[in-house]
């Protein structure tokens, strides 16, 4: 049976690779979205009547409504929503720019939430659907200068884990994807960098200043990541709740979670003593 996928942020990176893969499947309808329609011209090669393009900035409510309506009108529903659109931000916590941080949350968290809220009534009506939320390895473990980016992805984790429990009996799956660094525009054009100017943070200067130069040499292959997301949604039952991708997301997160577990165990007597009749 033909399934309809709606993917946000298909102009570049994971979104573009996933859209390219989906556009080649005869049993998939694709709603591809971008902030500039010209960024979707690459899909014309594959169009055989099962691709709809929509202008979508996930911070613009009217564009969300119009995109979801387009999917309904053209294909009669939405089976898979991929909340992929996202930005990066590199700065120490103290030196982060408040306006930049608010915009980061608007896109990475509130944009994803607004898309989800718009699509959930359709999926509840179908009693079926899959929501794929792009978190990050940095949604599991964090690093200096990545605090606010991680805060958005930790927010995506908490939001998605609650949603998993709320919609489990409604036929809706939620898969959280946690990629490690990959060769997309994310660390380059898609992220603001505020290089430390306070001398106490000099140790992080080179790291932030060098991000643009090192962007593009990350280990993660966006095409392979798109393929893995596609395979997990289409071929794995039950759909995994988490999809950590790359060495850092796997080994790095395991080391962090083992440390956290050990810390919680060490404190268990004190923790338990907080509950008093
Ligand atoms: N690459 C990595 O290392 C990595 C690792 C873990 C997680 N991620 C996450 O993966 C997702 C995809 O990123 P990517 O790595 O593929 O980077 P990318 O190549 O920069 O792609 C990001 C996409 O999001 C779109 N976007 C940005 N702001 C938007 C907005 N307000 N409304 C709608 N679309 C918007 C971009 O569109 P424009 O072209 O118009 O800017 C672009 O299509 C993000 O959520 C990112 O946080 C990336």
Structure commentary:
- The chain has helices spanning 13-23, 61-75, 98-126, 147-167, 205-209, 211-214, 222-235, 247-266, 268-272; strands spanning 3-7, 28-34, 51-55, 80-83, 88-90, 129-134, 172-179, 191-193, 242-245.
- The chain has one domain (3-246): NAD(P)-binding Rossmann-like Domain (Rossmann fold, 3-Layer(aba) Sandwich).
- The chain is globular, with a radius of gyration of 20 Å.
- Helix 2 (61-75) runs parallel beside helix 3 (98-126).
- It has 277 residues and is an alpha/beta fold.
- The chain has a seven-stranded parallel beta sheet, with helices on both faces. The protein has a two-stranded parallel sheet with strand order 5-8.
- It is 45% helix and 16% strand.
- The chain binds NADP nicotinamide-adenine-dinucleotide phosphate.
Compose a concise summary of this entry.
Keywords: Oxidoreductase. With 277 residues, the chain is an alpha/beta fold. Helix content is 45%, strand content 16%.
């Amino acid at each position: 049976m033909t399934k309809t996928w709606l993917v946000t942020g298909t102009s570049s990176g994971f979104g573009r690779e996933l859209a390219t893969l989906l556009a080649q499947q005869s049993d998939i309808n694709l709603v591809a979205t971008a902030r500039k329609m010209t960024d979707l011209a690459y899909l014309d090669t594959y169009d055989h009547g099962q691709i709809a393009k929509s202008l979508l900035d996930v911070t613009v409510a009217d564009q969300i409504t119009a995109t979801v309506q387009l999917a309904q009108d053209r294909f009669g529903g939405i089976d898979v929503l991929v909340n992929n659109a996202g930005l990066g931000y590199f700065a120490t916590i103290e030196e982060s720019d408040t306006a930049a941080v608010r915009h980061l949350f608007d896109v990475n968290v509130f944009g994803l939430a607004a898309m989800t809220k718009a699509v959930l009534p359709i999926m509840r009506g179908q009693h079926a659907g899959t929501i794929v939320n792009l978190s990050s390895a940095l949604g599991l473990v964090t690093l200096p200068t990545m605090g606010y980016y991680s805060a958005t992805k930790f927010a995506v984790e908490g939001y998605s884990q609650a949603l998993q429990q709320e919609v489990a009996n409604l036929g809706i799956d939620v898969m959280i994807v946690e990629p490690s660094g990959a060769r997309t525009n994310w660390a380059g054009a898609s992220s603001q960098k505020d290089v430390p100017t306070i001398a106490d943070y000099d140790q992080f200067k080179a790291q932030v200043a060098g991000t643009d130069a090192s962007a593009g040499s990350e280990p993660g292959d966006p095409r392979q990541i798109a393929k893995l997301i596609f395979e997990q949604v289409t071929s794995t039952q039950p759909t995994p709740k988490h999809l950590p991708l790359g060495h850092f997301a796997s080994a790095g997160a395991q080391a962090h979670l083992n440390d956290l577990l050990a810390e919680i165990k060490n404190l268990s007597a004190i923790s338990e003593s907080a509950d008093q009749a």
